[in-house]
Structure formats: structure tokens, C-alpha cells
Amino acid sequence: MDASSTGVRRFFQQISTEEGVYGLILVSGLVAAAGGVHAPSFKILIFVSVTVIVFWLAHVYSGVVARHGRRDDDGQPAHLGAVIRHAIGKARGMLLAVVVPGIALLLGVFGVFDDTTATWVALWSCVGVLALLGFVAYSRLGVSWLWRIVGAFATASFGLIIIIAKTIVTH
């Protein structure tokens, strides 16, 4: 297996966590909010990135507070360093949620898309990744194609609801 397929697989493993799904929904809302005021792609990308980093830090911090001082499997107090590493590793998917929509926004920054198109591509890319995560999750259960599609739609619906809200509010 080559390095690029290994990287894609690791990316997918990290984003297919609850933190990754939450991050995609968060990014969708942030892009919709910033795009609703017709901000340029660069400002949307900065706003989304900074906000996700703040949420990620809060998530890591809350994980550390919740686990620090508890006993590990051996009955020993969990060491702060181990608790921090665990919280960072668990929350990584939230940061990775910016990657796919961030590429769309970067294409707006570099003029490949106009800002409005970059915003919509970023939003729809969140929906697409959410759908893929839902489809894969249901596939792992071994259910029929119909239920895999239902799972994909259910997961994507969080992003779709944000797009519908954006459309209602801004048009």
C-alpha cells in the first residue's frame, strides 16, 4: 500500500469519529453563517479555521478535565501527559473536518471559484462527506443497500438542514 492511500485511510478513520461528524456539522454552520453575510472566501476560511480550533481546544480541555485524576485500567491515577495525548487523539477528527470544505474555500481564495461558488461548494462538500460517513457506517453493519442509503441521507441531513436554513435566511 502506498503512502497516499495510507494517508487517505488514516484521514477517513479520524474523520469518521463522533468528533469528525460534529466538526463537519459545525463547519457547515460556520460556512453558512459567514457566507450569509457575503464574506470573501479568505475571511470565511479564517473564521471557520479559528472557530474550529477554539472548539477543538475546548473539546480537548474538557476531555482532560473529565479524565484527569481518574484511575486507569491498572487502578493507578491517570498521568496528565497520557490524558492530554488521549484527548488530542480523540478530538483530531474535529480539526480534520475543515480539510475538504477548506479546499473549496482555498479555490475561492485563489480565484478558481468566485466567493459565492466557493461557499456553496464548501457547504455541499460537507454534506457529501457526511453522506459518505453515514453510508460507510451502515455498510459496516452489513445492512442492505436501501438502509445504507437511508443512513447516508440521515447523516447528510444535518448539513442539508443548515443549507435549507441558509437559503431561507439569505434569499
Structural features, described:
The protein is mainly alpha-helical. Helices cover 81% and strands 0% of the residues. The longest helix has 27 residues, at 41-67. It is globular, with a radius of gyration of 18 Å. It starts with a helix and ends with a helix. 35% of the residues are buried. The mean pLDDT is 92.
3D shape: globular
Helix content: over 70%
Helix and strand content put the structural class at mainly alpha
Number of helices: 7
Oligomer status: single chain
> In angstroms, what is the radius of gyration?
18 Å
Helices and strands, in order, run as: HHHHHHH
Q: DSSP strand (E) fraction?
A: under 5%
Q: How many angstroms separate the termini? A: 48 Å
Number of strands: 0
Mean pLDDT: 92
Question: Describe the biggest sheet?
Answer: none
Low-pLDDT ranges: none
Briefly characterize the structure.
The protein has 171 residues and is an all-alpha fold. It has helices at 3-15, 18-36, 41-67, 80-96, 99-109, 115-140, 145-170.
